[in-house]
């Protein structure tokens, strides 16, 4: 049996998302290792500044003790004026404050620079992974979901990175430095404090876990709200026309209420952290005051030591508080890192095989052999499709809505792979070609002519990057677009607007056609490409297309059967299969599915 197209090798099976179920802590650690460490120079500078800040802060308590002892001497009976060393001490305290503030400034700047650079890389890599990855992933996930990942997850990563870089070194070093000075001043009092403070951390760690779970849920819900908003605003015309304002308002309100409920839940846990630490701090102070009064009376310590230790605690307390909330911030960062790696790690199911070759000098012969295809959501689209198109031939695909016509284009572009069977170009399974060379050989004009918010000329030039202005104009003329483009303010340099909204549907279609014509590919796919044109424009564009498609293989999908009449061959698709094929005249005389379609349309 003639196979017609050889399957070079079966494509690799779909690999699942590796990131599923990974712990946030592991993801956060990986984020630090892979994303923040490459910018280590900035963090090293930030850490050096943090160390200076900490030393200056830790010295406060001890300097205070010396000053108080000096003041005690001053208050004594044999005083003869302020001794020079006391002036020096006061000066040193001022210098420590100045050094601390300068190094704090340096730390913030250096760490922010490091984090921002890492964030730019993360965002760009996320975008690259989504853009290069499977079409199925992008089309299955609502746009809002990914938009939210870009905005909210990145905020959580930035916050976690900054807090870890700023508070961790400064907090830990300050606390260690303060502890040492406290131990030197009064070790007994210090030991009492060491017993009381850790008690504050147990509930804080427990809260951190709860924050993490809730924050993940809240982030997912932000995605839902984002897609609801963009959907509402984009469909404003339908909403107004059908009087759906109340329906939309109710949906939006429900989303906002849910958002605020989840936000409050996260906030409730976060809000409990500070009061818990505050209570413990207060209890510690009461204990210290009682104990110290007793010990001074016993002659076991001095007023200088007491004030020094209080000063040291005052310096360490905000750092400890920051360290206490750091866990919750890190947990949120971990949850965000989980989601970021979910995107970055996803292994595309559709990718070039190791032995893929470039499709060079394609002739444009096409063949679908017993192709079965099911969309990822389970919709069965093709059920053993067989048809072919010879190089240079124009084949029209007709059939009822949902019969699988657009799916044929999706498979030909290799946006998806068939479940079984094969799609071939020039006798070879397309899975053996590199994706880029396959797509270079094809030009698609879809029903929704998608334009970008750039100039008209730039939008046409997307068909072939680097095309000259003359080539762009030629393509526009062939698509019957040149005249209307010249009438736009700015002509070829007029802006198309977001999604091309400055143009009418028919104008957008003609720009999209010009783009495809400029591409000059041997395989042309027209999916309702002239459906938005009026009869006169369609006739003109059709004539241009007929001339243009002369030497290239053209697949045409059109509901208006008048458009497909002149095709070399018409293939009727029904329920995912080709049920009939032939010229218009042959099919009319066969009195089968095609004739029924024609009669249905005429009636
Ligand atoms: N992205 C998708 N995800 C899931 N199912 C899909 C997707 N696109 C199409 N389908 C389903 O696959 C089947 C074939 O759809 P297809 O778009 O190929 O039909 P069609 O013949 O081009 O229809 P129409 O003439 O209305 O454009 C339909 O049942 C449709 O619901």
TrEMBL record:
It is found in: Cell membrane. Keywords: ATP-binding, Membrane, Nucleotide-binding, Transmembrane, Transmembrane helix. It comes from Henriciella mobilis. InterPro entries: AAA+_ATPase, ABC1_TM_dom, ABC1_TM_sf, ABC_transporter-like_ATP-bd, ABC_transporter-like_CS, P-loop_NTPase, Type_1_exporter. This is ABC transporter ATP-binding protein. Part of an ABC transporter complex. Transmembrane domains (TMD) form a pore in the inner membrane and the ATP-binding domain (NBD) is responsible for energy generation. The keyword GTP-binding does not apply. Residues 44-332 form the ABC transmembrane type-1 domain. Residues 366-600 form the ABC transporter domain. The keyword Membrane applies. GO terms for cellular component: plasma membrane.
């Amino acid at each position: 049996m003639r196979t017609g197209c050889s399957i070079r090798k079966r494509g690799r099976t779909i690999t699942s998302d590796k990131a599923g179920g990974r712990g946030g802590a592991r993801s956060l650690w990986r984020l630090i290792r892979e994303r923040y460490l490459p910018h280590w120079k900035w963090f090293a500078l930030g850490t050096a500044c943090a160390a200076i800040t900490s030393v200056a802060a830790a010295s406060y308590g001890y300097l205070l003790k010396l000053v108080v002892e000096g003041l005690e001497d001053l208050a004594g009976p044999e005083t003869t004026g302020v001794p020079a060393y006391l002036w020096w001490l006061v000066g040193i305290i001022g210098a420590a404050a100045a050094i601390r503030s300068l190094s704090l400034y340096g730390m913030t700047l250096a760490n922010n620079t490091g984090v921002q650079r890492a964030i730019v890389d993360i965002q760009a890599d996320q975008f690259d992974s989504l853009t290069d990855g499977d079409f199925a992933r992008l089309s299955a996930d609502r746009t809002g979901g990914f938009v939210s990942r870009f905005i909210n997850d990145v905020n959580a990563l930035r916050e976690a990175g900054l807090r870890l870089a700023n508070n961790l070194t400064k907090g830990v070093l300050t606390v260690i430095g303060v502890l040492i000075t406290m131990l030197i001043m009064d070790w007994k009092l210090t030991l009492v404090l060491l017993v009381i403070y850790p008690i504050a951390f147990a509930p804080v760690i427990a809260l951190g876990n709860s924050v993490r779970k809730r924050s993940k849920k809240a982030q997912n819900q932000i995605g839902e709200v984002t897609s609801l908003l963009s959907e509402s605003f984009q469909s404003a015309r339908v909403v107004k026309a059908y009087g759906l304002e109340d329906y939309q308002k109710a949906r939006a309100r429900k989303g906002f209420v849910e958002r605020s409920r989840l936000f409050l839940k996260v906030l409730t846990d976060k809000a409990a952290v500070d009061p818990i630490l505050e209570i413990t701090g207060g209890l510690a102070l009461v204990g210290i005051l009682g104990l110290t009064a007793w010990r001074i009376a016993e002659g076991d310590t001095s007023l200088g030591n007491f004030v020094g230790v209080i000063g040291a605690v005052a310096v360490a307390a905000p750092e400890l508080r920051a360290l206490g909330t750091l866990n919750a911030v890190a947990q949120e960062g971990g949850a965000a890192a989980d989601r970021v790696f979910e995107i970055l790690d996803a292994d595309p199911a559709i990718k070039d095989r190791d032995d893929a070759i470039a499709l060079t000098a394609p002739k444009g012969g096409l063949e679908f052999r017993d192709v079965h295809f099911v969309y990822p959501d389970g919709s069965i689209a093709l059920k053993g499709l067989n048809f072919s198109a010879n190089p240079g031939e124009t084949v029209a695909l007709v059939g009822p809505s949902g019969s699988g016509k657009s799916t044929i284009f999706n498979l030909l572009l290799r946006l998806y792979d068939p479940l079984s069977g094969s799609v071939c170009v020039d006798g070879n399974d397309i899975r053996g070609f590199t994706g880029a060379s396959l797509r270079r050989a094809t030009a698609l004009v879809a029903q929704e002519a998608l334009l970008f918010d750039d100039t008209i000329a730039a939008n046409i030039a997307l068909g072939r990057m680097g095309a000259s202005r003359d080539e762009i104009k030629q393509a526009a003329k062939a698509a019957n677009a040149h005249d209307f483009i010249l009438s736009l303010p700015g002509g070829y340099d007029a802006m198309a607007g977001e999604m091309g909204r400055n143009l009418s549907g028919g104008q957008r279609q003609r720009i999209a056609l010009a783009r495809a014509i400029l591409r000059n590919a041997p395989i042309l796919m027209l999916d309702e490409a002239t459906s938005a044109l009026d009869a006169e424009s369609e006739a003109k564009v059709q004539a241009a297309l007929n001339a243009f498609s002369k030497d290239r293989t053209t697949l045409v999908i059109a509901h208006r059967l008048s458009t497909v009449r002149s095709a070399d061959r018409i293939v009727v698709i029904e329920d995912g299969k080709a049920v009939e094929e032939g010229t218009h005249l042959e099919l009319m005389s066969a009195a089968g599915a095609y004739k029924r379609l024609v009669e249905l349309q005429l009636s």
